[in-house]
Design brief:
219 residues; three-stranded antiparallel β-sheet; 3 domains; 8 helices; 40% helix; GIY-YIG endonuclease; alpha+beta
């Protein structure tokens, strides 16, 4: 099992503790991953290292570090410690995640409809409207409805809706104002000098028009 220790950094001029930390290996002597305030003190006064307590488990080190810092701050020291325990929050979170992980071992996780946190339902009527009628891609439908692409494909199969071959989901685009017909939204966008997304939203029924132009899909 990995062992930890509590260490202190002391100013060379006064021998006062300005920082307390928890570590293992040679962490007490590392100068990287230190705060700017810590570096300013060290650059101005220099520092010495003192091991306060060793041969600790991570949990013991976490608790002792908090106690040491709290005590020194009451004496006006540990000015480079901005919290009562360096990375204690991350350690505590890791312990919590490990506890959850251990509690779930051997338990089959719920998926799909059984998992209420995962939205995977779309009605047949809605899917017919978006896929065969409005010719939306499975990717577009997934983004609009808030489900995964595999779920969209699964629902198409369940509802006996024929899946289009890749690259064949596009229809022609017709401008209702002047009856011009285009092979794609991109082509219409270039011709009129307007954003593709605005044309797409008109086709989806989100906008009535864009730049005073109305569009619809054209077979």
């Amino acid at each position: 099992m990995k062992k930890y220790y509590i260490y202190a950094h002391l100013r060379k001029d006064t021998n006062n503790i300005f920082y307390i930390g928890k570590g293992s290996g040679n962490r007490a002597y590392f100068e990287n991953n230190r705060s700017l305030f810590w570096k300013r003190i060290v650059n101005k006064y220099g520092y010495n290292v003192k091991i306060l307590k060793s041969n600790l488990t991570e949990e013991e080190a976490y608790n002792l570090e908090t106690n040491f810092i709290s005590s020194e701050k009451n004496n006006g020291n540990c000015e480079a410690n901005f919290t009562l325990g360096g990375d204690g929050v991350r350690v505590e979170k890791r312990w919590w995640n490990e506890k959850i992980s251990n509690s779930l071992k051997g338990i089959k996780r719920k998926t799909g409809k059984a998992n209420k946190n995962f939205k995977d339902v779309i009605s047949k009527e809605k899917l017919v409207e978006l896929y065969p009628v409005k010719k939306q891609s499975t990717t577009q439908i997934a983004k609009m409805v808030g489900i995964s692409i595999p779920t969209v494909c699964q629902r198409l199969k369940e509802y006996d809706i024929q899946i289009r071959p890749a690259g064949q989901h596009k229809k022609g685009i017709k401008c209702i104002n002047d009856n011009n017909i285009f092979d794609s939204i991109a082509e219409a966008s270039r011709f009129y000098g307007i954003f593709r997304e605005n044309i797409r939203k008109v086709l989806q029924g989100k906008y009535q028009q864009t730049n005073n132009l109305k569009f619809k899909y054209h077979e």
